[in-house]
Amino acid sequence: MLMETNTVQAAPAPQPSKSGLGIAGFVLGIIALAISFLPIINNFSALLAAIGFVLALIGTIACVKGRKSGKGLSVVGVVMNVIAFVVVLATQSMYSSAIDDAFSGTSVAPQPAAEQPATTAPASDDAAGDSQAAAAGNSITLKNGLVLTVDGVVTGLQSYDGKSITQVSVTYQNNGNSQASFNPYDWKAEDAQGAQRSQAFYTDGENELNSGTLAAGGSVSGNLYFEGDVVKVLYENAFIGRGSDVSWNIA
């Protein structure tokens, strides 16, 4: 007589779940790396990279101990966040150096009269001082070869709500060897009380200055519009937020 035997198979051990912290660190690493090249914004990238690194590292440790799966994703997250943080440090150093080079010395060139040939005045020893101001119609040359000119001023304009508007015409001339940027937010206006303002919205504006880059040898002109009466026009770098190094007295 044959006896029947029942074979009981052991249930497979449950697989550990994916590491949520590792996935979160990986996602933060992608975001941090994507914006690590952008000026100012990459300050936020550094914060994301620091948080992402901690999360991904904790996730990696959990995977190594066998409590969670997804070790590869966590390790990649650690690496990406480290790279993003290094890129932030490198780009900020590069941008800071470029701005310092551009503003470490300036020279003021008077606008030549119509009957005289154009000449360039030599830079004075104190031309790099923050208080250096030229008269309207004069050009200021930055060390990187970018020549800035306040061409003229129109007062007595009015906005749609009756506020006084002042028009300032400016020109960028790139005499350097590399590209240079231009932006209406490079400029501010100062009134007699010392209050400084950025460009105002003016519905009837013409030939308004836009933003972009100039190739070596290129030039661009445009108009800026400011609220109220203006006694001084100031130029500063829009991305770095550096204090105004050059200005024009227009009162």
Automatic annotation (TrEMBL):
Chain spans, region Disordered: 109-130
Natural source organism: Senegalimassilia anaerobia
Annotated keywords: Membrane, Signal, Transmembrane, Transmembrane helix
Protein name: DUF4352 domain-containing protein
Residue spans crossing the bilayer: 21-41, 47-64, 76-95
Domain DUF4352: 147-230
Highest taxon above the source species: Bacteria
